[in-house]
Amino acid sequence: MKNCLDLTVAIPTYNGEHRLPELLEGLKNQINTENLSWEIIVVDNNSTDKTSQVIKTYQENWQCSYSLKYCFERKQGAAYARKRAVTEARGRFIGFLDDDNYPTPTWVSAAYAFGEQYPKVGAYGSQIHPDWEVEPPKNFERIAPFLAITERGNLPLLYKASNKLLPPSAGLVVRRQAWLDSVPEQPILTGRVAGNMLTSEDLEMLSYIQKSGWQIWYNPAMEIYHKIPSFRLTKEYLIPFFRGIGLSRYVIRMLNVSPQIKPFLFIAYMLNDLRKITFYLLKYGYHLQTDLVKTCEFQLFLSSLISPFYLWKNGYFKQNKTNLI
Q1: pLDDT > 70 in the chain, percent
Q2: pLDDT tens, 262-277?
Q3: Buried b (16+ CB within 10 A) or exposed e, 53-67
Q4: What's the number of domains the chain is made of?
Q5: Taking residues 72-76, what's their average pLDDT?
Q6: How far is the C-alpha of 44 from the C-alpha of 17, rounded, in Å?
Q7: In this model, does residue 324 exceed pLDDT 60?
Q8: Which of 175, 209, 233 finishes a domain?
Q9: Long-range pairs for 290-299 at CB < 8 Å and ≥24 separation?
Q10: Percent of the chain scored above 90 by pLDDT?
């Protein structure tokens, strides 16, 4: 599809009928966008609630100069929803907002300005503040970044490949051409679905973009607030969540590594994961049943160790014809 707009705001959503109105109101109240041509696309990722009716009602009463579009993606998984958004988007830049991400009034203008200022940037993340429904447990700041909390100061920051650190997809802006040049048709990781918490599909996408030579940045001028409900701070949610991150980790670790080095790095990562697991058992073994943060960290280390074997056993490598091993 021919691009003819400056920016597309894409909202992948699953059962977001109660979360979407606040986000859409926030986008209706954006400022400094008079000279921008932009649009909003809601990608319904196979919702079973009234998401489609909520968007239809908004469309019937929409009086903004920029359009509000709706499309349905039946294939479950955030990777499929984002891919559909890229296909539908007409903007040169695509800003992804989850349905629980609420932008400040200058988010859209700041998103476009940054991409124009840095022509070599392929993707850039927002400054993401938490909006806790309840107070998080003690020491939760140690694992908060895994919930897409990104507060890295008020100056732009280049994510260097050597640091092995990338921004989350919440509040992420991608240059559409960078996506088309870099991201394969079939990713290895597709995102969490019912019964499977395997995640990091956003990091896989960004790794492809970075591997192709595009820069990845942090843009603090794009600020959003991430609403985190109380259930996401429970052991019942967090343990499977960190297990999913760990089990997907081998893909991200090996994506930008040359084939000759992979066997050696495979052993190095295994030894390092074993070292961390042993250290935690020796130092915190007694507390792992009572300290939620330490339990989450231990689960991450354990699942990272298992990751290559889990992925191989479940056919991820064969299915996607990848040479990660």
Answers
A1: 96
A2: 999 999 999 999 999 9
A3: ebbeebeeeeeeebe
A4: 2
A5: 95
A6: 10
A7: no
A8: 233
A9: 291/139, 292/137, 292/235, 292/238, 293/137, 293/138, 293/139, 293/140, 293/142, 293/143, 295/235, 295/239, 296/143, 296/238, 296/239, 296/241, 296/242, 297/142, 297/143, 297/242, 299/239, 299/242, 299/243, 299/246
A10: 86
In a domain, 266, yes or no: yes
pLDDT at 314 over 90: no
The reply to whether 134 and 171 lie within a common domain is: yes
Residue 320 pLDDT grade (very low, low, confident, very high; cuts 50, 70, 90): low
42-68 pLDDT, tens digit each: 999 999 999 999 999 999 999 999 999
What is the SS3 assignment for the chain? CCCCEEEEEEEEECCCCCCHHHHHHHHHCCCCCCCCCEEEEEEECCCCCCHHHHHHHHHHCCCCCCEEEEEECCCCCHHHHHHHHHHHCCEEEEEECCCCEEECCCHHHHHHHHHHHCCCEEEEEEEEEEEECCCCCCCHHHCHHHHCCECCCCCCEEECHHHCCCCCCCCEEEEHHHHHHHCCCCCCCCCCECCECCCCHHHHHHHHHHHCCCEEEEEEEEEEEEEECHHHHCHHHHHHHHHHHHHCHHHHHHCCCCCCCHHHHHHHHHHHHHHHHHHHHHHHHHHCCCCHHHHHHHHHHHHHHHHHHHHHHCCHHHHCCCCCC
Task: Provide the residue range defining the domain that includes 266.
Answer: 237-319
Q: Among candidates 208, 193, 148, which has minimal Cα distance to 172?
A: 148
Answer yes or no: is 325 within a domain. Answer: no
